[in-house]
Specification:
- The chain is built from 4 helices and 2 strands, in the order αββααα.
- The chain has 129 residues and is mainly α.
- It has one domain.
- The chain has a two-stranded antiparallel ribbon with strand order 1-2.
- Helix 1 packs antiparallel against helix 3 and helix 2 packs antiparallel against helix 3.
- The protein is rod-shaped and about 95 Å long.
């Protein structure tokens, strides 16, 4: 089955949307925590809450009284990481759902003339016409 230019364009845009979502979801996230201005929290899809808890114990001891407290990795990282993950899922899901809907809407309609020819051929085989 041949696809039209519009259908191919929709498929390309769907792939681009899913690829953008994967890049956003797997891109490493950094956040400012106590004792470290650029702590690596992991990514939206791959992260370790255990590491956040362990690093939080060391981070509590690294506070400097003159600095404003930003929080430990266990306090700061979940919001940053889950926001990134949710954005990636939103972009990927939207690209897929809209792509499937647009593919259905741009599907070529079936020719009624072809349908009529096939129906009359079937009737001739049966000996009706």
């Amino acid at each position: 089955m041949r696809s039209s230019l519009a259908q191919r364009l929709v498929i390309y845009l769907m792939f681009a949307g899913v690829a953008a979502a994967l890049i956003i979801g797997f891109w490493p996230v950094h956040a400012a925590v106590d004792g470290n201005g650029s702590y690596s929290c992991g990514s939206g899809f791959v992260h370790s809450r255990h590491d956040w808890r362990v690093d939080s114990l060391f981070s509590k001891n690294a506070r400097i009284s003159d600095e404003t407290s930003v929080g430990t990795p266990a306090q700061v990282c979940p919001a940053v990481v889950y926001d990134r993950r949710d954005l990636a899922l939103l972009i990927g899901g939207t690209a897929l759902v809209l792509g499937i809907l647009l593919l259905a809407l741009t599907a070529p309609s079936e020719s009624r003339a072809d349908r009529a020819v096939l129906a009359s051929a079937r009737l001739r085989k049966r000996g009706v016409g």
